[in-house]
């Protein structure tokens, strides 16, 4: 059984990926400092797979502790690195927190593994690296644009650090996955997204409004040059996204990769407007949502959706869930969370 380290494995995307890794027969060790997650998630994972992953509570900013971890666990074949801070707005007000948490941790990990004979590494990147691309859908060939936020910049710099390191570290092979907008939860309702405070993202705001936690959803602008005037994104079910990590990891472990640093877009290939997301929610939840149109949100790009040809053909992965399925899973998760609180 190959041992895989999942940093940030108790977080939203990490926990769903741990489940898929275990179901695919991998042994998982999680590192998490619980800054945006809780230990309860381990039970959720175990309830789905029947296997409790090994968990080390560790802050990757603690260099000594991280070095000791890698000394203790030398038999790791792969790393999926989710651990990072991800609030775009907070990164603007506290950039150093983001540069430290998202980049110094990456550097420390790479220092520990760069001399290993064989190590596979999957990086959590983001479609935010493309900014407002000139043509849609966005392929991996689209240029990386100057980042709008320090958060986005950490993803761009993270990719550069990995690319440069993979050039000189012979045993290191890297795949960077550029996620579009992950939504939804596991169909078991054992794990899902747990936003801290008022959600900044659309889907948790919708479900929290419907459950009565928020009064109404503010739709940020309906005067964009799109069909219904609201912004377009590529919303991908988190379980589809989790499966992409397993596929990417296997590609590296089976030495199917073409270069030591590869990039794939992970989305559905389909753009949905904010109003379409609301309609989907209303359809699957069989209730109407309280929302109003307000002004644009600063920094929002008009339209972003993926060209997934490379992931479909070269990686051999394709998203299978529909927007309705993802919205239903988000709604079922919200209802479960509120019932147990
Ligand atoms: P999340 O906050 O739910 O998960 C991140 C996990 O990392 C949390 O459990 C947190 O406690 C942990 N963590 C943070 N800093 C740490 C540190 N110093 N040491 C140890 N653990 C630490 O976030 P997520 O939505 O699951 O995102 C996972 C990754 O995917 C992040 O790198 C994020 O930037 C990236 N990403 C997320 C999205 C999205 O919309 N959710 C989109 C694109 C990329
Ligand atoms: C989606 C759409 C909003 C909330 C962010 C990060 C990005 C990535 C994913 C990590 C937009 C609209 C939202 C609300 C609204 N994360 N909206 N009312 O902005 O595409 O991306 O999360 O890498 O880096 O920037 O996602 O969910 O915030 O917004 O109308 O209350 O919903 O304007 O059009 P976004 P989002």
In short:
The protein has 341 residues and is of the alpha/beta class. The protein has eleven helices and 13 strands.
Overall description:
The chain has 341 residues and is α/β, with parallel strands linked by helices. It folds into 2 domains: 3-182 and 237-266, 3-Layer(aba) Sandwich (Rossmann fold); 202-234 and 269-340, UDP-galactose 4-epimerase, domain 1. Helix content is 40%, strand content 18%. It has helices spanning 12-23, 40-49, 63-72, 88-93, 95-113, 150-168, 202-210, 238-253, 274-285, 309-315, 323-339; strands at residues 3-7, 27-32, 54-57, 76-81, 119-126, 172-179, 181-183, 217-220, 232-233, 235-237, 261-266, 272-273, 291-294. The strands form 4 sheets. A 7-stranded parallel β-sheet has the order 3-2-1-4-5-6-11, sandwiched between helices. A two-stranded parallel ribbon has the order 7-10. α2 links the parallel β2 (27-32) and β3. It is globular. The two termini are 37 Å apart.
List keywords for this structure.
341 residues, alpha/beta, Rossmann fold, UDP-galactose 4-epimerase, domain 1, 2 domains, 7-stranded parallel sheet, two-stranded parallel sheet, 11 helices, binds nicotinamide-adenine-dinucleotide, binds UDP-4-deoxy-4-formamido-beta-L-arabinopyranose
